[in-house]
Amino acid sequence: MEITDEKNLKRYTVGLCPWSSSDFAEILREEDFDVVELEEFFDEGQFPDFLDAVVIDLSGEESVGLEKRVARELPNTPRILITARTGDIPEDTAAFAIIHRPITAIELIDVLIWACEFKRLVEKNPTRARLIDHPRVDVFLEETATELLPTARWLSAIFEHLPLGLILLSPDGTVMRANRPILEKMGISGIGPGNRFEDIAPWKEIGGGKPLFQQCLAENKVLRDVFETEGGNFVDAIHVPVISDGFTTGVLLILEDVSDETGFTNRLMDISDVIDEGIAIIDRDYHYVWANKKIRDWFGIPEDYRSNVCRFVLGEDKELCDNCQVRLVFQDGQMHSGYFRAKTVNGEKKTFEMIASPIKNRRGEITRAVKILRDVTGRENILDKLAMTKNQLENTNAELSRRLNNLRMLTELSFALQTVENLEKNLQIFLTAATAKQGCGFNRAFLFLVNRNNNTLEARLEISPPNPEEAGRIWNELESQPATFADVLERYGKRDFDEQSKDRTIQGMAFKLNDKSSLLVNILFSKIEAVVYDANSTPGALDVAERLMCNSFAIVPLLAMGKPVGVVVVDNQTSGHPIEDSKVQLLKAIASHASLTIERSLLLDELRERNELLQEAYRKLQENQDILIRSERLSTIGKLAAQVAHEIRNPLVSIGGFARNIAKRAEPDSPIRNYSNIIWDETKRLESILEDVLSYSRHSEPKLRDYDINQLLLRTIELLEEQIESNKIELKLSLEEGAGEIPMDPDQIRQVMMNLCKNAIAAMPDGGTLEIETTKAGGFVWVNIKDSGEGIPDEFRDKIFEPFFTTKSSGTGLGLPISYQIIDAHGGMLWFNGDDGKGTTFHVKLPAKG
Amino acid sequence: MAKILVVDDEKNIRTLYEAELSDEGYDVVTAASAKEAYELLENGVFDVVVLDIRMPEEDGIKALEKIMVKRRDISVLINSAYSSYKDNFLTWLAEDYVIKSADVKELKAKIAQILSKKGKA
Predict the structure, then answer these.
(1) In Å, how far from its chain's centre is CA A709?
(2) Are B83 and A694 in contact (CB < 8 Å)?
(3) pLDDT at residue A208, rounded to an integer
(4) Which of A485, A555, A691, A772 has a CA 20 to 30 Å removed from the CA of B51?
(5) Model ipTM?
(6) Predicted local distance difference test score (pLDDT) of residue B16
(7) Among partner residues B83, B84, B100, which is closest to A650 by beta-carbon distance?
(8) pLDDT at A1
C-alpha cells in the first residue's frame, strides 16, 4: 500500500507504558496510530524522543512511579494517565489529561489525537505554547456513555472482530470511525478518523447523481452498491443510515470484499478473450465500456476503446446500426437478438448474430447492455449453400417432375398412337401432343409429309385456332381443366377433323424434294431439328414465315427407319412466348413416336397391298386348283371316253359300213335306201363325236415343223367352201404375206382353224361376213377370225372354253377346249372379244419363227 | 385280179370288208387271227394285207413284224380304230395306215393307191 507524505505526517506515534490494558495497543493500531511498547525502555533507561504522546495506565499495582519516570524521561511529551481510582493520581502530576475509568476507545483516541496535535502544535511554535502551560484535563465518562458502554463495547467488538469493512461517516462525509486493518485488506487505505469520504473512496458513482451515501442520508434508507477500490478489490457496500433522536446522524458503510466473485469475473473475462464470441458492454451513450479480445480484433477497437462510440467502432456513419439490438434493449429492457452484416478491420465482410441483454444496476435501472456477437458468416455461407442446394434440388425436382410428366405424356401418346390404326388419326394425335398443354404446349403445329409419288414435301395437316378469340377460348378451357394428356386426347385428339380447317393455313404448300433453297426440305434431309428465331435472317425461312404470319418457329424432321418422311413446324404465334429448347426436345421425342406410327401406317398400307396381291394369287391358285381338279377329272373321263370310243368305233364301222352297203344295193328312192342312209349319216355323226372326244383326251404334244399359216388357212377354207356358200356368207381374206411359215403341228392347227371357222359359220345361220386376217407383229403371228353373228351372250363368256359346253344342238362342246389346248401347247394364246349382238372375233397368237 | 387278205378278229368287219372290197373287184380272203393269216400267207400269194392291230393272242404289230420278215414283197395296210399307233414306229413298216371308219372310201382309196404303185391296178 502506498502512503502519501501528507498521510505520513498525520500519523501519530504513541508510547504505551507497561501494565497498560492489553487491548489499548490493538485499538490504537486499528486507529492507525504507531504504537511503541515502552517496557524495554524502562529497563534500559533511554526513552525514544519521537513519541507524540505516552499513555500510562495506572490501574495496575506496579504502575506506581511510572508517571514520574516518564515525566522525567520525556518532559515535553504529553502524558495521558488512565486511572480507576482518584487516589492513584500523584498530587504533583503534570499529565496532559487524566482519563477516569470506565473508558471507551473513542475517548482514548479523541484525547490522544488531541494530545498529539497539541504536541505538534507546540513543536511548530515553541515560543507561543508549552506543554506545561496546558491545564490538566480530567476526562470522565458521561452517564449516558456509561450506560452505552456495553453497547459501545459490543459495537467495538463488532468493529474489531467482524470480517467486514465498517466505516462510520458523519453527515458531512467525515470518517468518524473505521476498522482500518480490514479495510486495508480490501484495498482501502489511509482511512482514519477525520478523513473525507471522497478521499478514501474515490470510486465513481455509476449512473450519475449524488454519491450514494448522500442519497442514503437524504432518503433515510439502506442502499447498496458495488465499488472498485483503489487496490482493485471489488467491494459490496451497504449504506445504512444511523439514526439518533429521530435524526440521521451518519451513515454506516458495511463493506464486503467481493473480489473473489470479481476474480471469478476476471477469469470469465480471460475466458471471454479466448472464446469465439465477441462480447462487449455498452453504456446508454453507446460507448464501449468493455469489450473482449475477439470484438476488439474484429473491429480494430483501440486500447482506449472506452471512449469509442459503438457505431464509430463499427465504421458506420449512421446514427445507429440498422437492426441494432442494443437500442431495442435500452427501449424495452428485454433481451434481443438479430443479425447484421459488417466489414471487419481486415476488410472481410461478415455476418453476425447479435444477442443483446440488459445490465441493471442495484436500483434496477438499465445502465448498460451486454452484447454478444457470433460470427455466423460460415453458418450463413452454409445456409446460403443449403438454400442454393435446396433451390437446385427444387429445380431438379421440378425438372424430374417435368420429365416424368413428359414420359407419362409420351406413354399415353404411344398408347394412343398404337391403338389407332388410321394414319390420319395418328397424325392428328401427334399434332395434339405438340399443342396440348400436357404435351409440348406450342400454340400451333403444322405437318408436312413427303409424297413419294411426285417427290414433294406437302402440307398435310395442322392444328391451329382459326382466330385469337378461339385461341383464347381453347387456352382457357385447357387451363381450367387440369387433365392428363390422355384426357386431352379423349376430348380433342380423336374428333374428326373438319376438312376445311385441317390445313387452312398451310394449304397447298409444297416443296420439291430437290429444292435446295427450301428450309423445310433442307431440315428434312439434314434430319436435325432447327429453331428459327428470326425468319428474316434465316435463308429459306421467309415463305414459311409469311404463310404462318409468325417470324419465329421450330422445325423438327420426322424420320421413319432413318428415312425422312416429313417435318413438323410449331410456333407460339398467339402467346408470343419464345420457343423453348426443352419443348423442342420434347417435340423431337414425340415426333419419333409419331414417325414410328407413320412408318407403321405406311408399312400397314404396303402390307395391305401385298395382302391383296397375295389374296389375288391365292384366288388364282384356287382357280387353278379347281381347273386342275377338273382337268384331272376330265383326264379320267377322257381316258374312259377314249376307251369307250374305241370300243364303240368297231361296231360303228360295221353298222355304218353295212348301212352304206345296203343303201348301195337298195333300189333308188326306196325306203330301205332312205333308212340305210339315215343310219349311215348318224354313224358318221357318232364317229365325228368320237373323233373330238379322242382328240381332246389324247393330249398329244404338237409335232412342230415350219408350215405356212396362210396356206393352211386357204386349205381349211376350201374344205368349208360348201358351207360358206350355202349359208350366204361373204368371205373377206386379209393374209399378210410376211406372216408365212411358223413352227406348228399342221394337223393340230388345222383342227383349230377348222373349229374356229365352223363356229363362225354356225354363228351366222342367216348369212353375214367372215373376215380372216393374218398379221405379224412383235415376234408373234396373229390370226383373227371375225364373224358378224349375234355374238356370245355375256353369261356364256366364261364357259365357252370349258369342255362339253355347247350352245349347238349337234356340238360336242369340245371344239374350243381342244383349240385352246392346242394353241396353248404351241406357246400361243387364244381368246376372243366382241359385244353381245355385234359379232365375235377370235384371236390366235402364235410364236413366229426364230 | 389283185388278191387281198383282210386280218381282223371281228367277224362283222371281215364280212363288211369282204363285201365292199369284192364289190371293187378284188379277190378277198379273210383271216380271224394273226396265226390264221400266217397260214394263208404261207400257202397263197397276196398283194395287200389289211391288218387290224388290236387282236387277241398276237396283235397286229407283232403280226406286221413277222409278215415283213417273211414276205417283204407284201404290202401291209394297217387298219385300226386307234390313231395312236401311228406314233409307234413299228407301224411305220406298213405301207399305210387307215383309221377304221364306217365310210370305207379311204380304205378303198389307199388299197388302190398301193396297188397302183405296184403296177397292179
Answers:
(1) 94
(2) yes
(3) 45
(4) A691
(5) 0.84
(6) 92
(7) B100
(8) 37
The two most distant CA atoms of chain B are separated, in Å, by 35
Nearest C-alpha in B relative to A650: B81
From B19, B84, B102, residue closest to A655, measured CB to CB: B102
pLDDT at residue B44 is higher than 90:
no
- The answer to whether A649 contacts B100, with C-beta atoms less than 8 Å apart, is yes
Residue A481 pLDDT: 62
- CB B20 to CB A661 under 8 A? yes
Confidence band of B112 (pLDDT split at 50, 70, 90): very high
How far is residue B84 from each of residues A19, A346, B101, measured CA to CA in Å?
195, 132, 15
What single letter denotes the amino acid at residue A103? I
Q: Report in angstroms the alpha-carbon separations of A459 from A377, A451, A511, A587.
A: 63, 10, 9, 19
Helix (H) / strand (E) containing B5: strand B3-7
Residues with Cβ within 8 Å of residue A411, at least 6 apart in sequence: none
From chain A, pick out residues whose CB is under 8 angstroms from the CB of B104: 657, 660
Q: How far apart are CA A38 and CA A42, in angstroms?
A: 7
Taking an 8 Å cut-off on Cβ atoms, the answer to whether A649 and B20 are in contact is no
Residues in chain B: 121
Euclidean distance between CA atoms A847 and A706, whole angstroms: 12
- What's the confidence (pLDDT) of residue A210? 56
Note whether A196 contacts B: Cβ–Cβ < 8 A.
Answer: no
Using a CB-CB cut-off of 8 Å, the residues of chain A touching B19 are 661
Nearest chain B Cα distance for residue A850, angstroms: 27
**Residues B11 and B37: beta-carbon distance below 8 Å:** no
Question: B13 to chain A: nearest residue by CA?
Answer: A654
Is A650 in CB contact (< 8 Å) with chain B? yes
Q: Tell me whether residue A4 is exposed, middle or buried, using C-beta atoms within 10 angstroms of its C-beta: 0 to 12, 13 to 18, 19 or more.
A: exposed
Whether chain A has a CB inside 8 Å of the CB on B36: the answer is no
Longest CA span, chain A? 244
CA–CA min distance B32, chain A (Å): 15
Cβ-based contacts of A698 with chain B (< 8 Å): 83-84
Q: What is the pLDDT of residue A207?
A: 42
Instruction: Please list every residue in chain A whose beta carbon sits closer than 8 Å to the beta carbon of residue B107.
Output: none
When scoring B28, B101, B106 by the number of chain A Cβ atoms within 10 A, the one with the most, hence best to mutate, is B101
- pLDDT, one tens digit per residue, over A398-423 is 888 888 888 888 888 888 777 776 77
Q: Residue ranges of chain A with pLDDT lower than 50? A: 1-8, 203-209, 313
Residue of B nearest to A643 (CA): B82
Residue among A293, A281, A396, A374 at smallest CA distance from A329? A281
pTM for this predicted structure: 0.36
C-alpha cell at A340: 447484421
- Strand (E) positions, A67-173? 79-83, 97-100, 137-139, 165-169
Distance CA A530, CA A20 (A): 123
Q: Residue A237: which H helix or E strand, with range?
A: strand A234-244
Identify the pLDDT of residue A314. Answer: 52
Beta-bridge partners for A139:
A99
pLDDT (0 to 100) of residue B110: 93
Whether A654 and chain B come into contact, CB under 8 Å, resolves to yes
Q: Which residue of A has its CA nearest to B22?
A: A661
State the residue for C-alpha cell 356364256.
A796
Q: Quick check: A238 and A222 in contact, CB under 8 A?
A: yes
Which H/E stretch holds residue A228? strand A223-228
Nearest Cα to Cα of residue A587 among A556, A621, A542, A627: A556
Q: Is A835 exposed, middle or buried (0-12, 13-18, 19+ CB in 10 A)?
A: exposed
CB-based contacts of A828, cutoff 8 Å, min separation 6 = A780, A844, A845, A846, A847
Residue B8 pLDDT:
94
